[in-house]
Amino acid sequence: MTPPPRSALVRSLITAAEGVRRDLRAAFGPAFGHRVPVFSARDGHAWPAAPPSLTPRTLVVKALTRPTPDAVVITLADPSGAPLRAFPGQFFTLHVPVGGERLRRAYSVCSEAWGEVADVSLCVKRVQGGRVSGQLVDQLAEGARLDVHGPSGDYGLRPEAPAPSQLLLLSGGSGITPHLAMIRAALRHLPQTTLTLVYGSRRPSHALFIEELRALAAAHPDRLHLRLFVDDDAGEPWAGERGQLTEDRLVEVLGGHGALGDAAAWIGVCGPEGLTAGALQALARLDVSAARVHVERFTAGARPVTSDAPGLRLPQPVTLRRGAATWTFTAQPGKTLLESAVAAGVSLPWSCGMGGCGACKVRRVSGDVVLQEPSCLSGDERAAGDTLTCVGYAAGALTLELRP
Amino acid sequence: MLPVAKRPDLSTSMQTQLDAWGEAAGVLGQIRDPKVLASLGPAGVRGLVLRRGKQGVPTPIPASHSAHFDWSYPHDNPEMAELYRRAKRGQWDGDDLPWGTFVDPVSPEVRLLPDDFMAWDVLSRAGVKLDKKERRELLADTSCWLLSQFLHGEQGALFAAAQVTEAVQFFDGKLYGSTQVMDEARHVEVFLRYLESKLGKLYQINDNLYVIIDALMADARWDMKFLGMQIMVEGLALGAFGMMYQVSEEPLLRSLLKNVIQDEARHVHYGVVALREHITKELSESERAEREAWAFEVALLMRNRFMVYEIFDEHFEGLMSRATWREVVKQSPGLDRFRAVMFSRLLPNLREIGLLSDKIRPAYEEAGLGRYFTGLAADQLTGDGMIEELEAGRGAVLVG
After folding, report:
1. Cα torsion through A104, A109, A110, A111, rounded to 10
2. Is the CB of residue B128 less than 8 Å from the CB of residue B148?
3. Which residues are within 8 A (CB) of A101 and not within 5 positions of it... i.e. 6 or more apart?
4. Is the pLDDT of residue B23 over 90?
5. To the nearest whole angstrom, how far is the Cα of A118 from the nearest Cα of chain B?
6. Hey, what CATH class is B35-48+77-392 in?
7. Interface pTM (ipTM) of the complex?
8. Domain residue spans of chain B
9. Nearest-angstrom CA–CA distance, B251 and B264
10. Across chain B, what does the average pLDDT equal?
11. What is the mean pLDDT of residues A75-102?
12. In terms of C-beta distances under 8 Å and separation of at least 24 residues, what long-range contacts does A212-221 make, across chains too?
């Protein structure tokens, strides 16, 4: 039983007595060694996150595992022990020094991430002739420090979005990594969602995370359905299906799947260009509109600009507009638009810093921009005049429009 | 690593406490005018003895002024109406500052405060020898202490501006006052954001600053609030902001201070316009003399008593006495410059509103402040002019 409320008089007497007690303690306590802390620690979480500067942050390699001879899973953590914040489907941009150059490459998170986590795991698969992937697979050691940007990208699942009724994920090769993170997160955090993974690899020894996937499917037999393919078993043991995931094969595999006609389903494609193109065609043939399909493209490292436009060698005036507001800065030769803006104290949105996520996308109103390629801009975006500040250089006086 | 003060033994505690009480008695004992003592005394006891600002709970400070309503809406002061127009146009958004700037409080390249800010020789004579890195750490803490006091001062200014807006009898002044309330809220916002997101630390309010704020919040007379807030505390703020603007190399802090200084310049201007009228035309000579003496005492409190004891408590208690620490602070070139900027703003304003008569001048001269009697008052200085003046003095040697 709760006691009856005290009368106003009693309450004011109690307040007064507490005040006197505090006054006496504050007046005489210090003489007997009682000290109040002279400051309080503050962490700034209440303020909107400031756009990060171009300086990467440093993470430390906590663990390394090698799921196949040609891949490495790198577990990264903040050296101070502070948590990281990432969502399934996002990627980090690693800055890797190779022969005197700092090359940037994006790698998706494959560990479960649903906001704050103690660490993240990225999967790196060796690319034929790849300088960065080769060095990471062969030479990285535990305890090493890596400079990173990110996490970046809006592909994948987010806690604030409505939970999809089902996930239909089409992966090829190392395109499995963002999907593995999504499967792990959905199984734990989206209990109503059912999942289908269609995953194609060239050979059994190239297929990543097969044991983990089978273990997850065994633990959730009624929720996770796996369709695992290899182009050719090459004589290696393989318990899955065989045959390359071409457009025709995908029509056959996906035909009749419940997600196709379900507006609350989430359909995602991540893999090499050939598989992505085939999957989009196949889904179109199955009457799934392109707008419903989420695509995560691999972005290879952008190559240095080779254009010899004379304007690239001169400082160029840049005007930025957002609604009625305008800012101006000078683009310096040899610096990206983003680097010049930051150096001039103009903050612009950006994330991966390598043309891979589109966070820095702006609309070109007038003037020429030369981009490092390849980048994540689609043909439609290019036609509409979109460009990227993190890999863009001014080849003349520019006017750019920021998204509202 | 900087030393961290340990929990002191009983004799150190007693010594520290006796020194603090001695100082409180000194502050109150030196006030000669009984009316001033009556006004500052109770606030002094609450701040210096009961340490109301440091009890770790919110502090209620009762107010006893009347809100002045006027149903005829007179256009009674064109100068204030002009200030109101300027203030509306001078509004800015704290979010537009370059918050993306990376701030390393101990960076030796982009220094929050210059290396010669502190009296290192006095510290080392007291047996505390700091290497380069420890000096940067102490300067980072000192910057943080200063900015924390700015923030606490702005909270006082926010509430005082609201009270003054209620109490003042000029209708144009009320409209202007509302912009000042907004200005002060924005100053609270940007200082708090800087402390929380860049420095990671917030120091408690200094006891002497608490006394001033308490005294003018509790005073029922609107012109005392005005004098306290618009002339004295804003003058203190302009001195402190101006000093920091001149010496700091950190670009975000400098652009923050630049915007704040331009607002403050309007505030002091308003104080001068409102009080000149009131003090020279409406008050009796004895009332005027009381305010003159009050302003003198508060000026001394501001000059002599900001001893940065919170930093002493954090790092040096037990390593040196409070008296030695006071020497460190008094001989610090940076704080010397702060006092110079503050009084060069404050005294011309007091002169302009009629609170620097021949009766009080000898007292200021005795305190070594005679050189600041001339100079431009706030109604002749714009915010831009003030920034230009600070920029011009930027390269000058610290010791003035």
Report:
1. 140
2. no
3. none
4. no
5. 22
6. mainly alpha
7. 0.80
8. 35-48+77-392
9. 20
10. 87
11. 86
12. A212/A180, A213/A180, A213/A183, A216/A183, A216/A184, A216/A187, A219/A187, A220/A187
The packing angle between helices A273-285 and A247-254, to 10°, is 50
Q: Which residues on chain B are in Cβ contact (under 8 Å) with A43? A: 196, 200
Q: Which residues of A have a CB under 8 Å from any CB of B?
A: 22-23, 25-27, 30-33, 35-44, 46-48, 50-53, 55, 342, 345, 347
For B135, the token pair is 């000096």
Model confidence pTM above 0.80: no
**For B201, which residue in chain A has the nearest alpha carbon?**
A41
Put simply, the answer to whether A30 touches B201 (Cβ < 8 Å) is no
Q: Which residue has the tokens 């109301």?
A: B52
pLDDT of B400 reads 29
Pairing of strands A145-152, A91-98: antiparallel
**Paired tokens of B105:** 């409080």
CB contact under 8 A, B56 and A36: yes
pLDDT in tens, B363-378: 999 888 888 887 777 7
Report the helix count and the strand count for chain B, using DSSP H and E.
16, 1
Torsion of CA A27, A33, A38, A41, to 10 degrees: -130
Residue type, B132: K
**pLDDT digit string, tens, across residues A235-246:** 899 999 999 999
- Measured from the Cβ of residue A16, the count of other Cβ atoms closer than 10 Å reads 10
Residues of A in contact with B17 (CB under 8 A): 30-31
Question: Which residue's structure tokens are 């109406």?
Answer: B81
Provide mean pLDDT across the span B352-373: 88
- How many angstroms separate the CA atoms of A110 and A124, rounded? 10
The closest CB to that of A32, out of B13, B100, B204, belongs to B13
Q: Residue B118 has which token pair?
A: 């502190």
Region of poorest pLDDT, from A202-216, A385-399, B134-148, B381-395: B381-395
For range B263-271, the mean pLDDT: 87
Least confident range from A208-212, B138-142, B396-400: namely B396-400
Q: What is the pLDDT of residue A301?
A: 58
CA-to-CA dists, residue B324 to B128, B290, B320, B329, B362, angstroms: 11, 35, 6, 9, 30
Per-residue confidence (pLDDT) for residue B399, from 0 to 100: 32
CA distance B318 to B16: 9
Mutation for B interface: A22, A47, A54, most B CBs within 10 A: A47
Q: What is the per-residue pLDDT across B79-107, written as a single tens digit (0 to 9) for each?
A: 999 999 999 998 999 988 888 777 888 88
Q: What percent of chain A has pLDDT over 70?
A: 95
Structural domains of chain A, with CATH: 57-151 (2.40.30.10), 166-296 (3.40.50.80), 310-401 (3.10.20.30)
B chain contacts of residue A51, beta-carbon cutoff 8 Å: 100
